[in-house]
Write a structure and sequence with these properties.
- It is globular and about 70 Å long.
- It has a seven-stranded mixed beta sheet.
- The chain is built from 18 helices and seven strands.
- It is 50% helix and 9% strand.
- The protein folds into three domains: 39 residues; 265 residues, Metal-dependent hydrolases (TIM Barrel), CATH 3.20.20.140; 96 residues, no CATH class.
- It is an alpha/beta fold and 454 residues long.
Length: 454
């Protein structure tokens, strides 16, 4: 029992905003795991390659170190972080994965404007032309000088958007008002809060200062008192309702985006590639007009540099309505088949940026059986790229890869094999450094085979 309490304390410290506190706690947890004083689930075929950390918003307060430990303790085959607009967690996460021996990848998500789809809604509901876009397979939080302006622009746009939303919502919720610097910025360790941080702060402040909190939310959200009472007993649903009512389309805080509200795909891809990462398109559920033309969209985005596709599986099968579930599952199978035809590996995960989301997908769900292997292959691909780029600067975007693996299919297969077979972390990188430099892909695989990896 004392051991369990100590482990719980250390896991709580992984959520601390002080990086030294997190680093120390992780070292103690790693030592406990090596000594056998904390139970670890053996590695199994489950992955979560799309986890937001608290550098953007994680519903469980998980830091990059927390997520690496979550993966280690629960036997994830691989894990990846993806934060909105920032790369702040990349170094911490990859270093934590190295320490624990976890296959890891790191990425960033933002929104872009696609003029070719300016009159079609894509994957940002109600916002034609606006597209959630990602970069995965980053190896450092550092940004090369030639693209530093693009990275800075993402931060500045996010802050300006937040402040506009805050001003509108403050006027509506008065006297429950927030000061951006005092009440919101401290919630995000990197100083890049999201709408969800603001929602959490508003809910807490109303609870602290309003005598009749039910009546307050009835008036501000324009819903019945019985519904508010029910919602207040379900934190996840209540926060999602507040965000939808106040900050999304139709809400008082909603800021209508325009063609200049977000960067272009081309600009974001320049940033991603300059950092050694992989431009990655995203898919919602195949319902919108833009996603019903997914072949057209992906072909166009491939021309602009994307090399992978992100999917959040849980929202495409774990649905109560049987007719809607049938439609979305079919759409899921269709887009996985399309990605395979286009040689686009898949990056999948649960996000964890909304209360109630799973910490990992249910890979045993019957609905996922036909696509499960494609999900695992995609995780192997991005972790293989990450290992090769970190160890020998021979990742997917490298000159070596362009010459030695000229087709996307060949690169997909090679990096997936690396991710599948090479040990994670420092052990794998040292091995690749020993056998990988200056060799052709087949030679590298043969050398690795001779070491017993295959």
């Amino acid at each position: 029992m004392k051991v369990d309490v100590r482990i719980s304390e250390l896991e709580a410290r992984l959520k601390d905003h002080d990086p030294e506190v997190r680093r120390s706690a992780l070292k103690e947890l790693d030592a406990a795991a090596k000594q056998g004083t904390v139970q670890l689930i053996p590695e199994r075929d489950i992955v979560n390659m799309h986890c937001h950390s608290f550098y953007s918003y994680n519903a469980y307060g998980f830091s990059p170190s927390s997520l690496a430990w979550l993966a280690k303790r629960n036997g994830f085959r691989a894990c990846g972080i993806v934060d909105f607009d920032v790369l702040d967690g990349v170094d911490e996460f990859l270093e934590a994965c190295d320490l624990l021996g976890v296959r890891g990848s790191a990425g960033m998500e933002t929104r872009v404007f696609i003029p070719e789809f300016s009159i079609r809604e894509i994957n940002s509901p109600g916002e034609p032309g606006i597209f959630y876009h990602m970069g995965i397979g980053f190896t450092s939080s550092a940004v090369p000088e030639e693209v530093a302006g693009i990275a800075s622009d993402l931060r500045e746009r996010a802050q300006a958007r937040n402040e506009r939303i805050l001003a509108r919502v403050n006027a509506h919720l008065d006297p429950v008002i927030l000061d951006y610097a005092a009440d919101v910025l401290p919630l995000a360790p990197g100083g890049t809060p999201t709408e969800r941080h603001m929602v959490s702060a508003y809910v807490q402040k109303a609870t602290d200062m309003v005598d009749d909190v039910v009546s307050f939310w009835v008036e501000r959200l324009q819903i019945g008192s019985s519904e508010v009472t029910d919602l207040l007993n379900d934190t996840a649903r209540f926060q999602n309702t507040v965000r939808k009512k106040l900050m999304k389309r139709g809400g008082v805080g909603y800021v209508e985006p325009g063609s200049d509200s977000f960067p272009s795909v081309e600009a974001l891809n320049r940033l991603i590639v300059a950092c050694g990462g992989l431009p990655c398109a995203t898919w919602l559920d195949g319902i919108s007009a833009g996603e019903q033309a997914m072949g057209e969209l992906l072909e166009m985005l491939i021309g602009k540099g994307i090399v992978a596709l992100n999917i959040v599986p849980d929202r495409n099968w774990n649905i109560l309505d049987p007719a809607l579930r049938e439609t979305k599952v079919k759409n899921l199978y269709d887009v996985v088949g399309l990605a395979d035809d286009l040689d686009l590996p898949l990056n999948v995960g649960t996000e964890m940026n909304s209360p109630g989301q799973r910490v990992v997908d249910d890979f045993d769900a019957p609905e996922l059986a036909p696509v499960r292997q494609a999900f695992l292959d995609g995780a192997d691909f991005v972790t293989g790229h990450t290992l090769m780029q970190r160890a020998v600067s021979m990742g997917y975007q490298s000159t070596w890869a362009q010459q030695a693996l000229p087709t996307r299919r060949a690169r997909c297969e090679f990096y997936a094999e690396i991710g599948r077979r090479v040990p994670p972390g420092l052990t794998g990188m040292r091995l690749l450094d020993r056998v990988g430099r200056g060799r052709a892909p087949d030679e590298i695989l043969a050398k690795l085979s001779s070491t017993g990896c295959f």
